[in-house]
Amino acid sequence: MRIQLKYVVASLVATSSFILFAGEWTLSGGVLTSSDGQWSFSGASKSGKTLTVGACTSAAADGILDFRDTVVDGNAITTITIANNTTWGSANIKEFYCDTLSKVIASLFSGSTTLEKFQVAALSNSGIQASAFKSCSSLTTVNFGGRITGVAIDCFNGCTKLDVAAEDLISPSISGMATRAFQNCKKLHGKLTLNNINSFTSAGSCFAGSGIEELALLSENAAFTTFSTGGFTDCLSLTNVTIKSTKLTTIPAQGVFSGCAALKKVTLDLPNLKTVVTTGSNATKLFNNCSAISEVKIFGEPWKDSSDNELVNAMLTKHVLIAVPQVAATTDAPKKCTVYAIRHLFRDFASAMSGKEPDHAPPKCYGVYADLDAKRKAYMAQLPDYKSGMFVSVQ
Is it the case that residue 321 has pLDDT exceeding 60? Predict the structure, then answer.
């Protein structure tokens, strides 16, 4: 009985000892070493309650790096700083935890094939620097203690397994995007809302190939003046786009939403828009290959293109119905209107815009027209038993 009791007491002491010394490190000659000797970092230093760490020279077998409740040589640490130019991409880190991290430096985990989880309770600088998580092919979870307010080029590019809602990750107040910031983040989902975006001019392919489902650009007062090439190309889950800006004056149409095959609804409220590129190699690429679009709403004053032509017709033919051939108006369509065939095979029968089908029209044929005499309103005409088609309203 005494032997058994002695064993229990020894076990309790061992357990208590483990708890007491969890997170304790030693710092000697710029080398930081964990109490169990499994983790080691060079270029380390301590100032007050801030610990700076550099290159990882030894990693624990389980790959779990935990700086929570860190104690260095008996002194509590509240903030971890990672020295500039430090890279942990090949450090066999599988999970990273920290109470407060000063910032996520450039290229920190770039190219890591092991990192799965990155979690900090607080991030002092909530911007993510260039290539910080680029090509982290195993990364599924990130938590920064709040939504990030800044991104840089390639910061999450190629994180194909990162499964997070856009509204939980990205602050709606973020002011700028960066080239390829979230490119090919296929599991980045949910609704992306940007209320204060200033520019997409240097943000080519920033969300290309991502899994976002709804986009709301509501930069009414920010200096949002133009898009960049391919910012949202091939977002195959994107179904709903709303763009509202009093500052946007030009849509260059350089493939911004090209290939968004699931996109159904587009709402544009751009009262000061002056130019939509309607000629040249970029003319048909704003919504190129967006064959699922079924509703377009256009608000604001009449738009004109660079040749001073009314833009309703141009917007439909060049940017919305880009895969739809235009056909001539016929006698049973309203005067001064342009008739569009929604289905290529029925383009010769797209004259049913007055609300009736011609006798010779194939079953289930329908189209859309823009009535330039009625404040550019567009109407839908189709048989009741046909599936949802294109509806365009200009208000």
Answer: no
pLDDT at residue number 267? 81
Q: Within 13 A of 175's CA, how many CA atoms are on the CB side?
A: 5
* Best CA proximity match to 268, nearest among 243, 245, 286, 293: 243
Per-residue pLDDT at 296:
66
Query: How far is Cα 249 from Cα 224, in angstroms, rounded to an integer?
Result: 9
Contact 130, 156 (CB under 8 A): no
227 Cα distance to chain centroid: 15
Q: What pairs with residue 191 in β-bridges?
A: 214
Among all chains, which residue has been given the structure tokens 């066999």? 92
Residue 100's SS3 state is strand
Report whether pLDDT(243) > 60: yes
Interatomic CA distance for residues 257 and 262, integer angstroms:
11
Please answer whether residues 204 and 228 qualify as being in contact, where contact means their C-beta atoms are separated by less than 8 angstroms: yes
- What average pLDDT does the structure give for the chain? 74
Task: Choose between 176 and 112: higher pLDDT.
Answer: 112
Higher pLDDT, 336 or 243: 243
Q: What is the rounded (10 degree) CA torsion for 64, 65, 71, 73?
A: 100
Q: Rounded to whole angstroms, how far apart are CA atoms 84 and 31?
A: 16
Q: Which residue has the tokens 């017709």?
A: 313
Question: Alpha-carbon distance 381 to 352, whole Å?
Answer: 7
DSSP secondary structure string for all residues of 271-338: TT--EE--SSTTTT-TTTT-TT--EEEEESSPPB-TTS-BHHHHIIIIIISTTS-EE---TTS-TTEE
pLDDT of 69 > 70? The answer is yes
Closest CA to 66 of 103, 102, 98: 98
CA distances from 346 to 289, 325, 335, 364 (A): 19, 10, 21, 9
- Return the pLDDT at 123: 96
* Type and span of the H or E element at 194: strand 191-194
- Which residues, in sequence order, are bridge partners of residue 251? 276
The answer to which of 22-31, 148-157, 184-193 has the lowest mean pLDDT is 22-31
* Lookup: tokens for 342: 């929604």
Tens of pLDDT, residue by residue over 142-174, are: 999 999 999 999 999 999 999 999 999 999 999
Neighbour count for residue 108 (Cβ, 10 Å): 26
